Amino acid sequence: MSERYEVLAVRYGTRQTSAAEVFLNHHAYREPDRPLGMDYFFWVARNPARTVVIDTGFSPAGGAARGRTMLMDTVPALRAAGTTPDDVAQVVLTHAHYDHIGGLPVFTAAEVIMTRDEYDFWTGAMGRRGQFAHTTEASELGHLRELREAGRLTLVGQSHGIAPGIELTQVGGHTPGQAIVTVATAGGPVVLASDAVHYYEELERDRPFSTVADLADMYAAFDRIRELGEAGALVVAGHDPLVAERFGDPADAPGVIRISP
Ligand SMILES: [Zn+2]
Questions:
Q1: Ligand 1 mean position to 60 CA, how many Å?
Q2: How far is ligand 1, taken at its centre, from the CA of residue 202, in Å?
Q3: Cα of 252 to ligand 1 centre, how many Å?
Q4: In angstroms, what is the span from residue 100 Cα to ligand 1's centroid?
Q5: What are the 10-residue block averages of pLDDT along the chain, 261 residues in total?
Q6: pTM of structure
């Protein structure tokens, strides 16, 4: 039997934005703009045998450069979730944007895993073009290269078993190698959609996000994730304040949202 995990969403940052900023070509919907909050998360999957962290959050510098509010730096955020960098066997990176890889340097021993397409894109020439590059930090991409040279970064294909009960699936769209992660829990599968679905509204109203590498792939990812949801999986959006509303419990530690038992 496959292993099962407890899944936590750690809310480490936030900002205020608007519908016109977050939805691609929002004017096409002929609706007035409206304010929207955006939360920043990383995720922890653990059981007695192992702790796997999915994404790492932005660095203080990466967040400050973009006017984001950091609620907890990576180590205190891990502590809030009851863990430390040394407890973490594997770090899965769903994509290489600044708000997903900025906390990576605190994990000095973990195996780091991401898709080969994502790594190749951001370490290649196209990733340095303006409309792509502003969502990354050159020093953080440099850190990925160093990890690769040191043999600590594993690059994987379209689907990859991270550990028994934890599966990575590449969907693309938001970035060329964007991945989602499915985790087996006592309550059934949990799909950590990360930035394949920033907001539930993207899925529910079929509205792509404004930062997009391939629009057709983004729509196809919506289809795929909806199918997983219809088959009974719990879908966790990557930046939606509704995650705290839908899953949060006053008994949880501040900033830590228990997705599954
Ligand atoms: Zn993000």
A1: 15
A2: 14
A3: 23
A4: 6
A5: 91 98 97 98 97 98 97 97 97 98 97 98 97 97 98 97 98 98 97 98 98 98 98 98 93 91 74
A6: 0.97
